[in-house]
Amino acid sequence: MLLRPWTWAHVLWYWHRFPRLADAFATSHAAEASCFVFGHTHRRGVWRFGTRTIVNTGSFGFPGRAYLTVV
Questions:
Q1: Which residues pair with 47 in a beta bridge?
Q2: CB neighbours of residue 13 within 10 Å
């Protein structure tokens, strides 16, 4: 990323956009699912869209700590 500094803008845009993209994916592939778990986007978090909960477990590498999810 040091050689391509504009990459940070792409990463930040993706982190901002990904929860809604995950919700759209879940809606089209598993519309009845109330919870959708994904990971490895390096940005952990939990988001709520309507009745669906989106969980990103994050990553165990840079830039932060991961969530542990027990299903």
A1: 54
A2: 10
Q: What's the token pair of residue 48?
A: 């709520």
Conformational region of residue 58, where left means phi above 0, alpha means psi within -120 to 50, and beta covers everything else: left
**pTM of the predicted protein model:** 0.73
In eight-state DSSP terms, residue 68 is P
Closest to 18 measured CA to CA, from 36, 31, 34: 36
Q: How far is CA 45 from CA 5, 17, 38, 42, in A?
A: 25, 13, 10, 10
- Decide if 43 contacts 18 (C-beta within 8 A): yes
Which regions of the chain are under pLDDT 50? none
DSSP per-residue string spanning 32-60: T-SEEEE--SS--EEEEETTEEEEE---S
